[in-house]
């Protein structure tokens, strides 16, 4: 129970469905803030108190579990490490993967519980063979299956999402008001929970440090300088401070961040169009493509949809697993180019409404060829 409206209603529905429910709030910071600032951040003392009040109204036991050390190691430190390597991580994915459905679920099962129920908008469907699958929520506008794409078979088997069939968030808020929950009109949290002021660049600068470097065009020519490569992300336009205007006068965008030599590569907007992505750290949300009967051989290509951000539209694509030495890559070729893809992002693969699996984007192929001069 995060202290928000979704988890409060999910807990109440789980009780009404006949389950023996215990409310748990995760303390993810050793020094939590006292109050939220609007809808920024989460896991404050105020949030814990909101969750406590909802649990009291529902009539269930309530506990606060300290996962702050695990959260720092598996989410915050990972976030810093990924940015230091020039990648753009999604901390919500890591939190779901390593905290809510790993550390929390492990502890819950050890204590004798059967499942972890959350307020995520997603559905679990059981197929004809009795296998559980992760699917999109009924309300696509609120669907959160993307951030759950990291779940594996065992985790899906021990998960519940009571809000998955709810047609709108407005209905959840109305239900919360009817139940007397004080969080009925509480704003949704957004941004990165451990950077509540939203200043990701400043937060990273304190932890990674800032070192001046060069900004290059795709052909290798120097067009400016920067104060630290970690402050840039693929697709960024503002804050480049370029000293050399582009020949056609059009704006440039960040195309690549190279932390090893502390350089940033920029170019035209159309160069952000990506014709292919290759991902590592592949996982399947339930049965894999062979077990599901989608392909007969792991390397066979198959039609799917790929989604690269939580609120991005899914794009029709062809995916295939390719072995590179002893490691596997998930290579995805979209039917229309993806835009602004950055290494480190998560690509979630869907077949219809079903979440098939995910990978961490390791490299991309631009739809616009690199100028020949860059090869010299």
Description:
By secondary structure, the protein is α+β, with helices and mostly antiparallel strands. The chain has three domains: 5-185, HUPs (Rossmann fold, 3-Layer(aba) Sandwich), CATH 3.40.50.620; 210-267, Adenine nucleotide alpha hydrolases-like domains (SH3 type barrels); 272-366, Beta Barrel (Elongation Factor Tu (Ef-tu), domain 3). The protein has seven helices and 17 strands. The chain has a six-stranded antiparallel β-barrel. It is globular.
Topology readout:
Elements: H1 5-16, E1 23-27, H2 45-58, E2 62-66, H3 68-84, H4 91-110, E3 116-117, E4 122-126, E5 132-136, H5 153-157, E6 159-160, H6 169-179, H7 200-208, E7 213-217, E8 222-226, E9 253-258, E10 263-267, E11 273-284, E12 302-307, E13 315-324, E14 327-334, E15 338-339, E16 346-351, E17 354-366
Parallel strand pairs: 1-2, 3-6, 7-10
Antiparallel strand pairs: 4-5, 5-17, 7-8, 9-10, 11-14, 11-15, 11-17, 12-13, 12-16, 13-14, 16-17
Helix pairs in contact: 1-2, 1-6, 3-4
